[in-house]
């Protein structure tokens, strides 16, 4: 993901200022993790499993558990997926942290990685502590439902969209040059 050909990214070791820059991104990731975990603790202690509280005609707060990945992928398996997704989340967090240390002068790219990092760690914590991910945001239209999700998922999704946007804008800029 690091792009050595981009301005500000070199093949050399990070400069002295790099730890300060990466520290800000890691602080933002920590904020995402804390907000995610606080909301999950709230819903875990204030709601019964499956309980729903209507907020808007298309949105409810609820308490659901996801043993799988996005959209409950592999949720019905015997439990091995818990450790697979935990390991994947940890590996992703390490790789993202390394990339953030090497990425300078690319705030949009760094923000995208930071959002993904915070979300990934938030869901890893759930898998380790509870054995499943706690979801509490439920959007629907009539009888159609989007799978329930949480703030960590919001971070991951927004980060992924921002990565795509960053790449499209970078490609467009290269074409104009």
UniProtKB/TrEMBL annotation:
Pathway(s) where this gene product acts: Protein modification; lipoprotein biosynthesis (signal peptide cleavage)
Membrane topology reported for the UniProt record: Multi-pass membrane protein
Record-listed E.C. numbers: 3.4.23.36
Lineage: superkingdom: Bacteria
Catalytic activities: Release of signal peptides from bacterial membrane prolipoproteins. Hydrolyzes -Xaa-Yaa-Zaa-|-(S,diacylglyceryl)Cys-, in which Xaa is hydrophobic (preferably Leu), and Yaa (Ala or Ser) and Zaa (Gly or Ala) have small, neutral side chains
InterPro entries referenced in this protein's UniProt entry, alphabetically: Peptidase_A8
Catalytic residue list: 135, 153
Stated family: Belongs to the peptidase A8 family.
PANTHER family: LIPOPROTEIN SIGNAL PEPTIDASE
Free-text function comment from the UniProt entry: This protein specifically catalyzes the removal of signal peptides from prolipoproteins.
Official protein name in the record: Lipoprotein signal peptidase
